[in-house]
Amino acid sequence: MKTESAKSVMQAYQLRVKRLLPGGVHYNFHLPWEETPIHFVKTKDSRVWDMDGKEYLDLYARFGALIVGHGNREYNECLKETIDRTLSVSHCDMDAEALELIAKFVPSAEMIRFGLSGTEIVQNALRLARAWTGKNRFVRFEGHYHGNADNIMGGRRAKTGEPVPKDFPGDLKGTLGRARDCMESQSYLLPWNDADALEDLLIRHGDDIAAVITEPVCVNGGSVMPAPGYLQRVRELCDRYHVVLIFDEIITGFRLGLGGAQAAFGVTPDLTTLGKALGGGGVPVSALVGKKEIMQLLTEKKVIHAGTFNGYPLGLAAVKATLEILSRNNGAAIDRMNSIMQQMHAILKEEADAVGLPLVIQGPPSCASFHLCSEPLANPADYTFDLLALDIILNNNLARHGILVSTVSRLYPNISLNEEDVEWFREHAGRAIADTKEIYD
Ligand code: PMP
């Protein structure tokens, strides 16, 4: 539909969408298409094309879910075959393969249940932890994200061990969990990478704490790595105070290698939440995996876990195909993906250095972030709103010049990346850096 103000096919289309879709977007995040709407019509490997025919390198990768690349033939064939054969049944003949592949690679996966989103599976993990320990509250950390549920969002710079303050930056209306009484009854918010703060809290309140939930690498807080020995100490403290340790590996799972962060750091949590790359990027699927003795509560029906589409065949087909593709040749595809991504990191840094723009890239190559500052963030709480605003400028400039990145400033590679993509990155990132430098000055 053409309107007077639309300058292109896509702009006209966006106006049509916007009439019915709040903000014209499917979620409220800082993504380039909030500023300049983008609707995609075609994809191949690492590239996507919008309605006006513009080509992009896709390092947004559907918030990190896309790991097999767009149009991966083996993956798509597996999904198509499933659509034709068993699309709408519960329990199909791919259950065993999908379960066994996860159990083979993820150290904590003694038993597994499937869901659709990360948000819901995190809630199931918390519920199991409460049931297992007979305790109520949980500990979470500043700058971490565990889904779009009221009891687990928000909160920055709270005093150690204190409940979340009532008015804090980023407060969102209508979110129950942000009300003080609800927070107080459910969670403690702590600074991350500070095992002493956790120990101090557990000494005082350990008898009411069921779980500690953490991203093992805090990707959502700017791709901050755990301090050496930190995760090990968290593990010891959880054991000492009979607290369930939950690793939220919804981003790191199958990105930091097939065993995720728990294999990479040699720390096995009691429960793990998986999502995003677990399903390759094409369909939603998540999983709660963990120790048999805890997961057994589901076998015994002592804890409810429900969901109309849990274990749906298309999701299991996606898990099976993804893990078969990623695990071939000892995970060579992930290694190659990481080394190509590191070349892009080096280019971005060189381009920034060349024009005198301060820039750091931090985190594992498969889920790193860049920031317009001169020192890496040591803690997610250091990711200030001012820095975030600067990063968003570069995010938007990259998108204008044909490189899509994820919220916020994250670069998510997929296994189809190749040398041509590196060259594309060099050319287009350079222009985005130059434009950003102009604004920065
Ligand atoms: N945990 C983490 C670490 C995440 O990054 C996300 C999504 N960004 C979630 C949980 C929630 O997953 P979903 O969006 O599938 O509900």
UniProtKB/TrEMBL annotation:
Signal peptide: none annotated. CDD domains: OAT_like. Its EC number is 5.4.3.8. Pfam families: Aminotran_3 (PF00202). Gene3D superfamilies: Aspartate Aminotransferase, domain 1, Type I PLP-dependent aspartate aminotransferase-like (Major domain). One of its GO terms (molecular function) is glutamate-1-semialdehyde 2,1-aminomutase activity. InterPro entries: Aminotrans_3, Aminotrans_3_PPA_site, PyrdxlP-dep_Trfase, PyrdxlP-dep_Trfase_major, PyrdxlP-dep_Trfase_small. The keyword Isomerase applies. Keywords: Isomerase, Pyridoxal phosphate. Its cofactor is pyridoxal 5'-phosphate. It comes from the Bacteria. It is an enzyme of class 5 (isomerase). Belongs to the class-III pyridoxal-phosphate-dependent aminotransferase family. This is Glutamate-1-semialdehyde 2,1-aminomutase. It comes from Thermobacillus xylanilyticus.
